[in-house]
User: Fold this.
Amino acid sequence: MADIAEPAQAQQAARPARRGRGANGRLFYRHERLRGYGLLMPALLFMAAGILIPFGILVTMSFWTQTGFDIDTSFTLDNYAKAFEQPVYQTLILRSLYMSGAATVATVLLCYPIAYFVAFHVHRGKMLWLILLTLPFWTSYLLRVFAWKTVLGYNGVINSALMSVGLIDQPLEFLLYSQSAVIITLAHAWAPFAILPIYVSLEKIDRSLLEAATDLGDGPWRRFLRVTLPLSAPGIIAATLLIFIPTVGDYITPALLGGPDGVMIGNMIQMQFGRINDWPMGATLAIIMMICVAIVALTVIVGTSRLKARAS
Amino acid sequence: MKGDSYIDRSSRTLTLYAVLFLIVLYLPILFLPLFSFNDSIYIAFPLQGFTTAWYAQMWENPQMWAALGNSVKVGMATAVISTALGVFAAKAITRYRLPGQGPLVGFMMLPLVVPLIILGVAILILMSRLGVPLSLYTVTLGHLLICTPFAIATLIPRFEGLDPSLEEASADLGENIWWTFWRVTFPVVYPGIIASLLLTFTISFDEFIVAFFLAGTEQTLPIYIWNQLRFPRELPKVLALASVILLVSFVVVFLSLWLTNRGNRTLVQPGKDQ
Amino acid sequence: MDVIDHLAAVRRGRLSRRAFTRTLLAAGVATVAMPLRPARAQSDGATFFTWGGYDIPELFVPYAEKHGAPPNFTTFGGSEEALTKMRAGFVVDVSHPCNQGLPRWVASGLFQPIDTAKLSNWGDVMPELIDLPGNEAEGGLPWMAPFDWGQTSVTYRTDIFEVEGEESWDMLWDDRYSGRLGSLASAGDAWWCAAIKAGVDFADIATEDGFQATAAALREQRPHIRVYTDDTTTLEQALASGELAAAMTWNSSAVLLQADGVPVKFAKPREGALTWVCGLMIHKDAPHPELAHDIIDSLLSVESGHFMIEDYGYGHSNMRSFDKFSEETLTGLGLSKNPLEILQAGHFQTPQTQEFETRINEEFEMIKAGF
Assistant:
């Protein structure tokens, strides 16, 4: 998963092998290229049909208007104007970005040490650890969310424990039906999406680099900051994007655990297609949300590559 | 052995953290079996008393089994097809230098970064325009869109470990392309294929949002569970089923791990360069 | 998972690679070729598209006797969602809307009138429930066969919530229990209940004044609400654990909680509860029109009625279903042998236009989000 950005390297590796083919190399090369496209074609065609057509419809629809049961198909920007005028949509989008951002940061921070532990400190049974860390996710997500209710609830595990120790007299009410409940649950649910890419990038680090750093007199922390952390950056970025992007549009977790203040933009989009019955508005909000997500994701990618460039 | 060097020395703090992490990871999930034995239809403390009635009722609930069966079918079909698509794509991406490859790959990864609700709604609109009735096939179609990028992303690192000269040698020996694939390529990449099959199956098996928009009369398990959340009567049976699934996956995973260890090697080592 | 066993076998050299690839290939082919159809001959049966909780064999005893098995079920969480899905092209035999949505469901053009001659129980159906606004198709046939009716009111914990004076909708606006009150998330219930609380007559609900007064009541209520939810399970669990002191629910929540030993009561607010009737409609392209009528007939039967009253606490449209129960039992459930008594004592939802539905839903979503 961490290796989305990697094909470029592979190309370079594959290139020299083909150089020495001489005169008929060119023909062969073109033939090869055709074969390459041929192999790529099934997946490409399928994805194109599955993405482009529905998205074309979605974009078109965002310029239409709903009138009762019918859709008025004359072009208008009213939906976009409405989305920018009404503060509720901005608030919901900002809140969604904040909540999934918080969940993403928490997940990556909490999972990094575990990935590090498995990559460097587990010598026998690495697979066992990886399986142990991903096994909980074989139970239904919906039921896990429900299970969190019993942990965070009014007389749930945390409140009961705190009350029996005597730390609090009244159950803490902010635990459930709040933004924090959504953030905690998302962080828990997406943990494997952080652990696996970070683990893969750590596992790839050449140990001799670490030894070299130690030989140069770096302490463990300095070594970590100078060698391990920068080299595991691709894993961290992959984890960040893999968690952040899908969670922005989540509506199940906020619906079940969020309470009135935990509503996210996904809930609003779902309502537009459901109860509110304004599909064009739902399409508009969906597109605005995707643009916001794309901006944040690009900022993360560009920002980290700048940082990387400066470091080296 | 590098494993014995001072860099890989064990750290007590990290070990402690790892154990705590596992506890927090498992704590909420272990409440599912706990409440599946609770003599109340409400999942709330205090516990009401021990019962195995939910398990008995679970066995006799044809709808739930039908939903489970549907989920397994959709998951298997999704896993096999998306992995097959992924194998071709990963091979093309790693083996050939194709103009415009970067954008094409980026495009195929798009579903990874599109919120599922949008994907679900967009496909639903398309299906209704085309007049395709909703069924498990449409759910599978939606899941294929979600899972194919995951399959490609999982398989690319595996194919990168592949030495192209091996394939060329096989081709020079007169083997055809398919035979070369099965004899030369496949043995190197199959851990990636297994990983991809498992990953895509798991994603499809638990996917709710897209399935919700694209399912017809036959429900998948997450849709069944979502509907049962509305009326608590059936919920404990769902908990019983979840506990059984959890137990079965534990047993199967550890059994296979044990078997593989007898083969004296670790199973799949993601990302480990050859 | 035997894939992994195979893998282990390959590694140990017990299985040749070729044999392994062949197995894998075979498995792949088998999976792809496997029809994505349930083992049961689903396509033969009719499909009932209904609320979660009605997808149970108990309501289809006569149907199962006649056809060997209950119909196929597919469920929804809200009737608007169901209509959306059918408008997107989803075809079923029978669906399950409520009276307030009836004219809009009819206007969608997706349904056909019910041939009442095919229903053996039609003669016992309470005529008052058939005679709803917008229910008459050509030839005097109904669009919707009434099935269940009930109320939306306040369910409260008798041991936690101290009622001041009479039971009233004010209970859900009571700042003593701020943060311990729950509400249904659909405007289809909450908007109408708030209108009752705000004193808006249902005849005026679509006027600008009525709209603003109702919205204001909902805005006032919002800070006190701990959770708005579509699933009654959430409300019931929170009431069972004491997290909520009172919540807006339908009849069945109180009945189920009481059956589980939780001290709750389904209030009779002095302003009157919200009352509703839900029923069955046949899709115009229903693949099994005959079976569709059998589904409806089964739901209208006395057996189904007994189950609805006893286990869910809802009213049933077949008047003979009530004979088995004493007046006392029915009163305890908030029901009566004379449904008009209940329906008219409460506030009966009146159908509205699609524009109004969109408007109140949009406004209510805003209010829930804090605007």
